[in-house]
Amino acid sequence: MEELQKALNETSLTISTLPEKGRCLFTTRDFSPGEVIISENPYVSVPNKNKESPQSKCEWCFSSTNLKKCSACHVVWYCSSKCQKSDWKLHSAECGALSKVDKERLKSLTPSLRLMVKLCMRRKLEIQKIIPTSATESYKYVEALVSHMSDIDEKQMLLYAQMANLVNLILQWPDSQINIKEIAENFSKLACNAHTICDGELRPLGTGLYPVVSIINHSCLPNSVLVFEGRLAVVRAMQHIPKGTEVLISYVDIAGSTITRKKTLKEQYYFSCACPRCIELGQSDDIRESAILEGYRCKDSKCDGFLLRDSDNKGFICQQCGLLRDKEEITNISKEVKSISEKASLSLSSGHKTEAVEAYKMIEGLQLQLYQPFSINLMRTRETLIKIFMELQGWREALSYCRLTIPVYERVYPRSHPLVGLQYYTCGKFEWLLGDTEAAVRSLTIALDILRVTHGTKTPFMMELASKLEEARAEALYMLRSQD
Ligand SMILES: [Zn+2]
Ligand SMILES: [Zn+2]
Ligand SMILES: [Zn+2]
Ligand SMILES: [Zn+2]
């Protein structure tokens, strides 16, 4: 760890250990908004392939263009010989093992199994000195990660043991070289430490283990943000961070009430969040905000009061006008939403998009009767509608839903959060497609202001955004001149 501490000191960071939190990363100088605090290549990583992201990806850089399959194992793809070469030391070992696996078993080779196979391989190659270690890259930093073995229930434990056996079957190493218990423990480490690698628009591409970035703790009010540039994890300051401050990112989507966030963090990461937002739990401001984000609206459609459960448990009382909203009425609408939701997602998964649109619009209508205008559930429904309309090229409808989500985004995320910037970017793209150049310039300007902090300025994604904005500005100017 001394080596790592020294390397971090050189980049104005230091690791401290606090009894209640474990390892923490602190700054040793001021960082300004948009500045890179730390970047790290994955110790091991693997691309994903699922319903949301069905295309194959380069094993090294996650690109999905110009791919060629590895001719020996027929499992991994590369976009270039450069990527293949960079991955070769690790893949040549993995390739040998994968080539021996029979076709049926290959089908059940999930990304998490592959990630574990690669982790075992990399460890072995380090011991054999085929892959060198460095101050920031070594298996000992994987060993230092928390595993939460004592918090895991028996069912989960059994699953990890089964997965460890599958890894063993793929590796086919002699018994002396394999430790099933350690592999099972490593699965639990991956569950709370592996990061989802995303593209610039935060769409998932794969999974990676970044043992140094993993030292950074969570806050529901983070001062930093983690984004990916290809395989590289980059943590940037979202705001001014003074010297001696803990670097904090968010592990989960921070849209939601304190109870919801705390529950998600407890279930996924086994800790009880004590961030400045979470310690407000139960205080009047927090109760109000939770009721606005996840609670019901007043029976009187003109009243914008928030509702709390009444003491007799008959229903929910408006805190502004005192009207009671009957529990039964709420249950009935909720049931209807649930039954339409099932049909809606079925239509969507079977490709009946127009049917799905109708169903989601009905859900939106019911949720408007049920929830507050800033409701997270309502926002999620609208996000789904945006996605479907984009697929149907219904830009006008997509734009109007996009505009409806922005006030909610601005309420639930910090001002310079990437999701806020991306939503403005989406809005700007629709406005541009619909010929509303002036609006597009406004939206893209806000998007660029936010995303240059979270994403930097030099990635292809950001250059595209900047050039779109320039084009829109030029056109707006041209239109203005031709009006004169
Ligand atoms: Zn590549
Ligand atoms: Zn191969
Ligand atoms: Zn929190
Ligand atoms: Zn009311």
From TrEMBL:
One of its GO terms (molecular function) is zinc ion binding. Signal peptide: none annotated. It comes from the Eukaryota. Residues 11-252 form the SET domain. Residues 58-95 form the MYND-type domain. Keywords: Metal-binding, Zinc, Zinc-finger. GO terms for cellular component: nucleus. PANTHER family: EG:BACR7C10.4 PROTEIN, HISTONE-LYSINE N-METHYLTRANSFERASE SMYD. This is SET domain group 37.
